[in-house]
């Protein structure tokens, strides 16, 4: 099947490589486009993968809805209004959004959720590192991890510098941008006497490309709805 790739940056190119390597699936790349251009493929793709820029969302959703093409979104940095547009589009087409397509991050989400329940009185900090060219900070994955923790604890994220002690109901979120880090996320649970660290390191963006391609193959067979990466392993109905 044809997979339309939107975005010709590092991730777009890596997804194109992985797509062509999937010998057990009849995948063929149609075209790779910048989100600032009008979407135009040699033929209508069976599914699209978007790793471009938030500014191109309207054109992408318009094309996807007009041609009824399932859409996998890996772009981060969306506003609340844009997320609402994505949710609305999911009423008529299958849409899978994930800030991180790593299986390891998916498991990390489960681990920190359980830890936050079991260690209810422990303080929590989050540290994330990425390459210096990453535009958004904190990362979409960091935001997702915070949301996971907030689902079981009343926590207020603290992103800015402060001259006050950290309060128990706060979670400090620290973003580092330097060198060529593909991605590193660590959640610390701490008391005065001990620390538990849950950490994930990505050594190559290939893991994200493989996850996105696997998600696209799966999504092409789904009905309209809003999906997450977890649904590949724990199937459910579209929401």
Could you characterize the architecture of this molecule?
The structure is a single chain. This protein has six helices and eleven strands. With 239 residues, it is α/β, with parallel strands linked by helices. It has two domains: 2-101 and 206-232, Rossmann fold; 103-202, Dihydrodipicolinate Reductase, domain 2 (2-Layer Sandwich). The strands form two sheets. The protein has a six-stranded parallel beta sheet with strand order 2-1-3-4-5-11, sandwiched between helices. Strands 7-8-6-9-10 form a five-stranded mixed beta sheet, with helices on one face. A hairpin with a 4-residue loop joins strand 9 and strand 10. The longest helix has 16 residues, at 103-118. It is elongated and about 60 Å long. The protein starts with a strand and ends in a 12-residue tail after the last strand. The model has no long low-confidence stretch (mean pLDDT 89).
